[in-house]
Structure formats: C-alpha cells, structure tokens
C-alpha cells in the first residue's frame, strides 16, 4: 500500500486544522490579570506573553502560507508524503508550548538562553520535514502537477532550504545572547512572509 497514490484534499484539510488549532492555542499563554486595581501595570507585565504570541502567531502563519504554496503544486500524495507531513504538523503543534516557555523565562528573568534555544531548535526541526516533504514530492516531478516546471520547483527548494539554516543561525545567536536570537527570529518573519504571498493562491 506504500505506493498507493492519493488525493491531497484530506491531507490539506487535516493540516489546515492543525495549523488553526496551534495558532489559536497561543492566546492561552496570555493570562487575564487578577489584580484589576492596577490593571495597566498588570497588563504591562504581560509583555513577554505578547511578544511570544506575536512572533509565534506570525511564524505559524508563514509556515501555513508556505505549506499552502507548496501544496498548490503537489497534485497527489502517497504514504511517505503523509508521514513526512505528519511529522511537520507534530512540530508545528509544539510551537505554542515553546512560546509559553519563552514568555515564562523572559517574565522571570531566568533561563532565557535555554528558552530561546529551545524555541529555535523547534523551528529548525520543523524546517526539516517541511523541506523533506517538498523534496520528496518534486524529485523526478514525482507528485507534482503541471502548475510548476522542474526549474521553478528547484527555485522553491532553494528558498525553502534557507529556512532551517537561517533559524539555525538565530538559534546560535540566541545561545550567545538571548535577545539576539529573538531579534533574528523576528527579522526572519517579514523575510519569509513576502515570497509566498506573491505566489498564486488556490480558491
């Protein structure tokens, strides 16, 4: 059954569901202040949670946008592709946890380096099955449709491959100085948001 060719509709629907749940769970980390007598002050103390929420929301969003662009060209799937996509989703679902750890470390001023490195490692790890999914689908135009040429597919590969490398650099910077890692992750958001949005979106 491993060679069975499948349609991608259910895979994409399941993936969209996981992305939607993961991105929604991020708001749970933002706790409602109990001391409403000093509400502005209490809301201000929540800035690490706001930071983790914004960065992680946009990161998950850009992963979804790239995933959407990728499956705009993947016409069919098999069991291997399903497995690779599942590993990707497993790591996406872990991002809300790492965002919470990061916010907690920043709020308590303890463990910031470990929290930033953990956050970066999950992003790097997520880039591996993402790239593996695309590389598996495009090799020999195995699972791609006629919406993209082999040369265009290679161009997308080069763009996708930069992701884990750049997040790896951000993680290394975070290991040296946590704020540098956070800045690097933040700067990669606009860098990676722009290219996918220029591509055709399926309706």
From TrEMBL:
Q: Name one Pfam family in it.
A: TMEM175
Asked if the Swiss-Prot or TrEMBL record annotates the protein with the keyword Cell cycle, the reply is no
Q: What highest taxon heads this organism's lineage?
A: Bacteria
Question: Which keywords does this Swiss-Prot/TrEMBL entry list?
Answer: Ion channel, Ion transport, Membrane, Potassium, Potassium channel, Potassium transport, Transmembrane, Transmembrane helix, Transport
A GO CC term attached to the entry:
membrane
Protein name in the entry: Putative membrane protein
Where would you find this protein in the cell? Membrane
Which residues span the membrane?
12-30, 50-69, 81-103, 115-134, 165-193
Give the family from UniProt.
Answer: Belongs to the TMEM175 family.
In alphabetical order, the GO MF annotations are: potassium channel activity; proton channel activity
Q: Print the organism lineage.
A: Bacteria, Bacillati, Actinomycetota, Actinomycetes, Propionibacteriales
The chemistry this enzyme catalyses reads: K(+)(in) = K(+)(out)
Q: Give the membrane topology, semicolon-separated if more than one.
A: Multi-pass membrane protein
